[in-house]
Amino acid sequence: MSSPLRVVATEGAVDLLRRLSDRHGPLMMHQSGGCCDGSAPMCYPDGDFIVGDRDVLLGLLDLRLAVGETAPDLPSGKSSVPVWISGSQFEVWKHTQLVLDVVPGRGSGFSLETPEGLRFLSRGRAFTPEEHASFDDEQPLLGKNWDAGSRPGPAVEPLVVATASDACPVPGVVPPA
């Protein structure tokens, strides 16, 4: 069994990231671990947030893709949005697939979506025991490895979902047909 993606994004989140990248250039995301912004996913121009040696890359969002698509190669430039989390926060989240969503509201003062009237929101889906076990032989890509040039392979399953409930269904709620 191949390991599932550690991060996916909704179509709305990807649309907002495209608009922000058109305005600000290449982007990056960091899943905040608390303090001033709670545990909000934060969006920055790439390089404006210093990734630590022990920060973990959850994945690369590919802004070239639509719902359900995959690509044979890695995105680059404005199409690539690395999503990071601190090493200590990763220990808390490692059993969970992060689903990056967007909702109406005001984001943090530090995140690029703040003036848009929208804010990024982290949702999560707990990995099944089999999915979680599939990571046993994999080491997460750390900031120090990224700085040394390491990159993940292209995603083999879709990174973009139509809605958050497509990635993390609500128990007892039947999705519309």
Index terms:
4-stranded mixed sheet, 177 residues, 20% helix, 5 helices, single chain, alpha/beta
What does this structure look like?
This protein is of the alpha/beta class. It is 20% helix and 27% strand. The strands form two sheets. Strands 7-6-1-8 form a four-stranded mixed sheet. It has a four-stranded mixed sheet with strand order 3-2-5-4. 31% of the residues are buried.
Helical percent range? 10-25%
pLDDT under 50 segments (min length 5)? none
Strand order of the largest sheet: 7-6-1-8
Counting helices, strands and paired strands, the structural category is alpha/beta
CA radius of gyration: 15 Å
Hey, roughly how much beta strand do the residues contain? Answer: 25-35%
Largest sheet, in brief, is: 4 strands, mixed
Give, in order, the helices and strands.
Answer: EHEEEEHEEHHEH
Number of helices: 5
Outline? globular
Number of strands: 8
Mean pLDDT: 89
**What distance lies between the first and last C-alpha atoms, to the nearest angstrom?**
29 Å
Topology of this protein?
Layout: E1 7-10, H1 11-24, E2 27-31, E3 41-45, E4 56-62, E5 80-85, H2 87-93, E6 96-104, E7 118-126, H3 129-133, H4 143-147, E8 160-161, H5 164-167
Parallel strand pairs: 1-6, 1-8, 2-5
Antiparallel strand pairs: 2-3, 4-5, 6-7
